[in-house]
What we know:
alpha+beta; 2 domains; three-stranded antiparallel β-sheet; 9 helices
Amino acid sequence: MTRSNWPILLIALGLTACGGVATPAPTASGRLPTQAVPLILEPTEILPEPGAGIPTPERVTTALIDQRLNPFADPACALPCYNGLTPGQADLSVALAFFSRLGISPIDMVPGDYETTLDGTGHLGASLIRATNIAEAVSAGYRPPTAEIAMLAGVVDNVQVNWPYYPSYLTLPTVLQQLGAPDIVGIGLQFTSTPPGYVLVLIDIDRQTGFIFAGVTQQGVGQLDVCPNEQTITNMAMGVFSASQTPLAGSDIARATLPLEQSTGITQDVFFTQMSAGGCLSVTADHWPQWQTP
């Protein structure tokens, strides 16, 4: 079982599978909000006592959360291992441990998630708001990431994280430097805002991982420049999947993109060179109709 992937990005961009624009459907009742809402609560004192199989959530800072969400920080847990969890191998206890390392217990998850997952299939989702310094961080402009784990027949099927900002430890040049050239690159444009938005999707099949970078283009004469950097990126997401499925195969956002070279004439070699150097991709006007409203 799966549910709509990454509603934050999809709603923000309004992308459809045919590359057009659609009014976003409302999220399912009780799911993660379209913005990460930091509910400022007193840490750990209000949490229930851990029960059988429920680990004690660790006391973490926003800096420690970032370190544990960094897929390249721990050489002993290389992708597709992520924060101590490998999709396709981990069970519910490991999924709960994944969240406890981020300061999260079942009471912090989307209401009903933990209970409905006890039969082996379901989702565990939470906004990562339990850092001990969360109040100060939010006052300074911090927006918490969200994390979600999908369980299937008692095994973790995938884990997905969304950052409503561009994490410094997961920039596009960093991803390319760490993993090399991706197996698949997709690109999407949307024209409902000024300047138009973009989505880049990168898939590494061997590591069972997909990345999504979403932001706004820079407009030139007869072209749109896609320049993934801190000034243009609005959201970034990553998903690690079990070996039984292609990363992002069920993602509405990935389906709204087109193969890079086929849709723009830009080869993956050029993409790798330009993006590794922190550069831009220019999509000329003759390619725009593929994503514009018919």
